[in-house]
Write a structure and sequence with these properties.
Largest sheet of chain B: none
Shape of chain A: elongated
Oligomer: heterodimer
Helix content of chain A: 40-55%
Radius of gyration of chain B: 22 Å
Strand content of chain B: under 5%
Number of strands of chain A: 5
Number of strands of chain B: 0
Structural class of chain A: alpha/beta
Shape of chain B: globular
Distance between the termini of chain A: 85 Å
Number of helices of chain B: 19
Order of helices and strands of chain B: HHHHHHHHHHHHHHHHHHH
Strand content of chain A: 15-25%
Low-confidence stretches of chain A: none
Distance between the termini of chain B: 60 Å
Largest sheet of chain A: 5 strands, mixed
Helix content of chain B: 55-70%
Order of helices and strands of chain A: HHHHEHEEEE
Mean pLDDT of chain B: 92
Chain lengths: 141, 465
């Protein structure tokens, strides 16, 4: 019985030590600083400062700016960005929810608006609003 | 503009209200005298209420709000009252009985548990939830349900949105949406509080169940402390995804399975609800419910009728949850997998690549942790409920190890993106099983034993096993 207890104790201490190794004080301090700095700010600003926008903060700024200028009747949003990745796709989808949003779709369904990051203006579309880092466009009639 | 802390307080109030409603209804699940377990089951019922009132209210064309939630809570309470309390256990419970000696150890372990909860609280709430699967799957669906009053058909009919996995169950998005409807807005930062709350409920269920099963309090606390500090599960990345809630429901599933097979009062009811919730959260939950039914069916030394009832209680509610989702969306393929690989010449290579990647990228880095677990396993003794819990953890683990061979994006891709995360969701089950095995290694002293009459349905050491 005593040997079993010693084995159990050794196992538990190894387990605890390996779990404790995952605790990084520098990371915790960074988290505390971020909460202290951002907690009173607007939710969108907190997301802008956070991990989901870290891959391209200007892109999130563009999306959020476009979201705020969307026409009420927009059925969905097609996003054109210079070099879209899966992270661009996911963030656009989430920001524009509950409306559907697709990044660089092959076809754009009727009633959707186009959110273009950058200066490109596809043919057949006309600008309806300038947004930070780009523009919103609708199909030219 | 609303800052984090006022929203956080509001979400805390919503979770407390749901838990209070669940606590009242849990009288039909948990026999008297098991305070920790009843709080945990009350929280679990509260989650089911949050998801359920949204689903039902939207299905009948209403707008979810406090009135609808209150109606759902009253209905749940009335149903609980009608069902009646489960019969009292044959023997009094051990939970809450003072234990002589070891006060310092217990205090240190409680401090470790508190540290683990605080650490996860900080990790989860540093910033709005951000993991890719939160943005593209779980949080997105919750935001759509909240914003458009349901999941519109375009969420599963636009082919380019296949990456949002419309085939996944909608339980977590419904919980998120339920809290958002009660809050009156979508706040994906304050909503993260749900996850440390689930962690706390998991720890309560673990410690309460272990103590009732005859584990000494330091053993129960030690298991809870190790689990609380288990960063692969309780980290910023998993916050917003279904692994943390599923791990809670899997623990509820495993513990109630053992209780049901050993005819603990209320065990069957708890098992049915845990299976329903697990299947509503993730496809892995449905798989676990099937595994639970198999474990019940092959449990040795129990009457066939009891085993059959337990197996049905595990499988039927889980199938009902899965069917409800399929009825809404129609049959949807598992997008990431193709069973046809099984019949292709390269399948053995795919299997080997998946297993090799698991070994290299998961097992080796976790070497010390796994060594500790092996020692703890070796120091314990066999018991039927511990074996059942281990089987319930091992069957999904085996599936997670084999599934990469069927992944269309490559076995190594699936291992890298999902294996460690999904396997970590089995940690509460493993903690319960190991602690139960260790109980006979750390028996109560005779003085303590006089004050503790053992578990309600058998002690941890099961000679028959």
């Amino acid at each position: 019985m005593r040997s079993r207890r010693l084995v159990a104790l050794a196992g538990y201490l190894i387990l605890l030590a390996s779990l404790a190794a995952a605790i990084r004080p520098a990371e915790l301090a960074r988290r505390v600083r971020l909460v202290a700095r951002d907690s009173a700010k607007d939710l969108a600003v907190r997301r802008l400062d956070g991990s989901s926008a870290a891959f391209d903060r200007r892109y999130f700024y563009f999306l959020e700016s476009a979201r705020r200028r969307l026409p009420a009747g927009a059925r969905g949003i097609a996003v054109l960005a210079p070099a879209p990745t899966a992270a661009h796709r996911d963030l656009a989808l989430y920001v524009f929810a509950p409306r559907p949003a697709l990044v660089a779709p092959k076809e754009i369904p009727p009633g959707w608006v186009l959110a273009v990051e950058g200066d490109a203006r596809p043919a057949g579309w006309r600008e309806i609003a300038k947004v930070s880092g780009g523009a919103l466009l609708e199909r030219a009639r | 503009m609303t800052g984090l802390f006022p929203s956080l307080a509001a979400i805390a109030g919503i979770l407390l209200a749901a838990s209070a409603a669940g606590f009242f209804a849990a009288r039909a699940l948990v026999p008297p005298g098991r305070r920790m377990e009843r709080i945990a089951w009350g929280f679990l019922l509260g989650l089911l209420l949050l998801a359920g009132f949204v689903a039902v209210t939207l299905a009948v064309g209403g707008r979810p709000g406090w009135l609808a939630f209150a109606a759902a809570a009253v209905l749940a309470g009335a149903a609980a009252k009608a069902a009646g309390r489960p019969g009292s256990p044959e023997r009094s419970t051990a939970a809450g009985k003072p234990e002589r000696g070891g006060a310092g150890v217990a205090l240190a372990l409680r401090a470790a548990i508190a540290a683990g909860v605080l650490l996860y609280f900080l990790r989860a709430l540093t910033e709005p939830m951000w993991a890719a699967d939160f943005l593209a799957i779980w949080g997105w669906k919750g935001k759509v349900i909240f914003g458009s009053g349901g999941l519109p058909s375009w969420t599963w009919t636009i082919p380019d949105l296949g990456f949002t996995h419309p085939e996944y169950p909608a339980g977590l998005p419904l919980v998120d949406a339920g809290a958002a409807f009660l809050l009156g807005r979508w706040d994906d930062h304050a909503l993260a509080l749900l996850f440390p709350a689930v962690q706390a409920a998991t720890l309560l269920l673990l410690a309460g169940w272990l103590e009732r099963r005859g584990a000494r309090r330091p053993v129960a606390l030690a298991a809870s402390a190790a689990l609380a500090l288990f960063e692969p599960l309780y980290r910023a990345f998993t916050t917003g995804m279904a692994e943390v809630p599923l791990s809670f429901f899997l623990l509820a599933l495993g513990t109630s399975l053992a209780d049901a097979v050993e005819e603990d009062p209320g065990g069957i009811r708890r098992l049915a609800l845990a299976a329903l919730g697990a299947a509503a959260l993730k496809n892995e939950g449905l798989f676990a419910a099937v595994a639970a039914a198999l474990v019940a069916a092959f449990w040795r030394g129990r009457p066939r009728g009891v085993r059959t009832r337990a197996a049905l209680a595990a499988i039927l509610p889980a199938l009902a949850a899965a069917a409800a989702h399929r009825l809404r969306t129609g049959p949807l393929p598992l997008r990431d997998f193709r069973t046809g690989f099984l019949f292709e010449p390269g399948f053995a290579g795919r299997l080997a690549l998946g297993l090799e990647t698991i070994g290299r990228e998961v097992v080796l880095p976790a070497g010390p942790l796994l060594a500790g677990l092996v020692l703890l396993f070796a120091a314990g003794r066999r018991s039927a409920p511990a074996r059942a819990l281990l089987a319930l953890a091992a069957l999904p683990l085996l599936a997670y190890a084999l599934l990469p061979a069927f992944c269309v994006w490559g076995p190594d891709w699936l291992v890298r993106t999902a294996f460690a995360r999904t396997a970590s969701g089995l940690a509460p089950l493993a903690a319960a099983a190991l602690a139960l095995r260790l109980s006979p290694t750390f028996p109560a002293s005779s003085a303590d034993a006089a004050g503790r009459s053992g578990g309600s349905t058998g002690s941890a050491a099961d000679p028959a096993a």
